[in-house]
């Protein structure tokens, strides 16, 4: 079992940067594919980025490609989301998520572990 805790959200002006961190507890972190999702009120929870269990492959949604970078440090049980060139439309609650398998899924329904979420607000 994996428990996840996100941090690093906050208020930033458009064009700025934030780095989100997700610290996992549990002995199986290195075998779990991880993803970052975001959600705004009244909308579905959509994938932002994903990374395989060993960091060998990543996925990014079209809206963040070239601006966001997902990475992981299994020795620290941590996954990161570096967000650059932030836009107001990036404003959302960001969630860290994990799967019980090592492959990335784009669907929130296929993730088994979730953090509490961290608010990211980008002002214009």
Low-confidence stretches: none
For the residues shown, what is the average pLDDT? 94
**H and E order:** EEEEEEEEEEE
Percentage of residues in helical conformation: under 10%
* Radius of gyration from CA coordinates: 13 Å
Please describe the biggest sheet, giving its number of strands, its sense, and whether it closes into a barrel.
7 strands, mixed
Count the helices. How many? 0
How far from one another are the termini? 40 Å
Shape call: globular
Beta-strand residue fraction: over 45%
Number of strands: 11
Structural class: mainly beta
Notes on the structure:
The chain is mainly beta and 124 residues long. It is 0% helix and 48% strand. The protein has no helices and 11 strands. The strands form 2 sheets. Strands 2, 4, 5, 6, 9, 10 and 11 form a 7-stranded mixed beta sheet that branches. A 4-stranded antiparallel beta sheet has the order 1-3-8-7, with no helix packed on it. Strand 4 and strand 5 form a beta hairpin. It is globular and about 40 Å long. The model has no long low-confidence stretch (mean pLDDT 94).
């Amino acid at each position: 079992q994996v428990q996840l805790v996100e941090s690093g959200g906050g208020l930033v002006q458009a064009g700025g940067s934030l780095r989100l961190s997700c610290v996992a507890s549990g002995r199986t972190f290195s075998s779990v594919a991880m993803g970052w999702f975001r959600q705004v009120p009244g909308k579905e929870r959509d994938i932002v980025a994903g990374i395989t269990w060993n960091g060998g492959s990543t996925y990014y949604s079209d809206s963040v490609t070239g601006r966001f970078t997902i990475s992981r440090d299994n020795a620290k049980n941590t996954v990161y989301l570096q967000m650059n060139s932030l836009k107001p439309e990036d404003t959302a609650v960001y969630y860290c998520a994990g799967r019980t398998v090592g492959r990335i899924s784009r669907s929130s329904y296929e993730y088994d572990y979730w953090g509490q979420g961290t608010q990211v607000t980008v002002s214009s």
